[in-house]
Amino acid sequence: MDLIDDPSQAGNAPEFTVSELSGAVKRMIEGEFAHVRVRAEVGRVSRPRSGHVYLDLKDDRAVLSGVIWKGVAGRLATQPEEGMEVVATGRLTTFPGQSKYQIVIEEIAPAGVGALMAMLEKRKAQLAAEGLFAPERKAAIPYLPEVIGVVTSPSGAVIRDILHRLRDRFPRKVLIWPVAVQGAGCAPEVARAIEGFNALAPGGALPRPDLIIVARGGGSIEDLWGFNEEIVVRAAAASKIPLISAVGHETDTTLIDFAADRRAPTPTAAAEMAVPVRRDLLAWTAEQEARLTAALTQWLTRRGQRLADLSRLLPRPDALLDGPRQRFDRAGERLPAALRALTNLGHVRLTRAAGGLRPSLLTGRIDRRRDRLASAAGRLAPALTRAAGLKARELQDRARRLDPARVEEARARRAREFEALSARLARAASAQTRLWRDRLESLDRTRQTLGYTETLKRGYAVVRGDGAVVTSAKAAKAAASLEIEFSDGRFAPDGGGVKHAAKKAAPKPPPEQGSLF
């Protein structure tokens, strides 16, 4: 566009509308600066509800407005903060509504390690001021957890190192929550993993871990930056399950290390912190068992020696009873005289009491009681009459109110109940009688089975000599007469013949007969 120096020629210059001029400027700027990279310090940062990010990029002499659209802002690995030195990549454009130019940022990154460290220190100071790194917030690591949750990449060498170390020291159940350990998705996935482990219900289908290990191998500060994000630090600080941070190597430090309950220099060291060595525990247990056995043996030996020493100091039992026995004998000697004295004293008291009993005194008391009885009897008849009249009137009133139909119904109901109870009683009596009869028959059969008469039917016999049972050959030779009892009668070898049991009742067995079995 040429400048017109001659005012007389101004009338021939073309006229533009504001929109046309703004569009021409926009096309020229976007054509010349379609892709630019700007190194600057972040000034004012604004995040409205729309999700877009508006900011200023400045140096010591100029300010450039910038905008990051919502879709791009959500994908950024590093969010811009005021005072951060960054390198912004994008394209220049204009905003005709305010007659200004601005850069539409497509990518933004800290300008070197120094910028990242400055931002890291600022964030660390902010979170420390909130108390997220306070020692009193940290929980103790369980000595031997049953279930260990590991938040890491499932395809890296870290998880293999942790599992191998746990298997060598003390095998435990391990739950792996796979996450991205670098890049834009690292921070939200790690935070969700920590919150997910804490959300598991104890005793559920998926066991709730007793310990969480957040692990990653070494790398640059940019690779480990996801573990410096505020969302990860807050999730680690809020974890109700004890958490060990094992991010990077020993020289690497991230903000999750300060929020965790314990920091491990390497993932392998985290596994060593999580569980003890099983062989060491077994050795320690055996050592403690040996010490306990030795201490118990020594204690029993000392107690036995002490008991033996004390038993030698005890007196003989006879010596303990000598004194009480002598006092008992002396008391027995004094007892008859004391009984006689007590009897005499009671006789004297009885004599004194009998002396005060005179016939006139008894007669006077009887007369007074008779007078009171006569007076009460005189008052009793009117009172009984009044009470009887009152009860008679009450009875008449109740009789008038009594319905014969209800009486008959109640009588019939009672009669039915009585008949039902009588039938039940008869059945119960019959059942009880049958039960008793069966028991008596069973007892009688038992009696017959256990009696010696049943034994005689099996071929045994009872030998009696001079009326007594003979149990040996010597006693049989010494007897003057013998008698043998069989199941069907008795036989006397000396000529008495056979006495059948049907003709004469069996005599009662001697009381000291004994068993034939």
Please give the structural blueprint:
Elements lengths: L17 H15 L3 E11 L6 E6 L4 E6 L1 H4 L11 E11 L4 E11 L2 H17 L17 E6 L4 H13 L3 E6 L7 H14 L11 E6 L13 H9 L4 E5 L7 H5 L2 E2 L3 H8 L3 H36 L3 H39 L3 H43 L2 H47 L1 H6 L4 E4 L2 E2 L3 H6 L3 E5 L2 E4 L4 E4 L17
Parallel strand pairs: 3-5, 6-7, 6-8, 8-9, 9-10
Antiparallel strand pairs: 1-2, 1-4, 2-3, 4-5, 11-12, 11-13, 13-14, 14-15
Describe this structure in words.
The protein has 517 residues and is α/β, with parallel strands linked by helices. It folds into five domains: 16-111, OB fold (Dihydrolipoamide Acetyltransferase, E2P) (Beta Barrel); 119-276, Succinyl-CoA synthetase domains (Rossmann fold, 3-Layer(aba) Sandwich); 277-309; 408-450; 454-500, no CATH class. Helix content is 51%, strand content 17%. Helix 4 runs parallel beside helix 8 and helix 5 runs parallel beside helix 6. The longest helix is centred in the last third of the chain and has 47 residues, at 404-450. It starts with 17 loop residues before the first helix and ends in a 17-residue tail after the last strand.
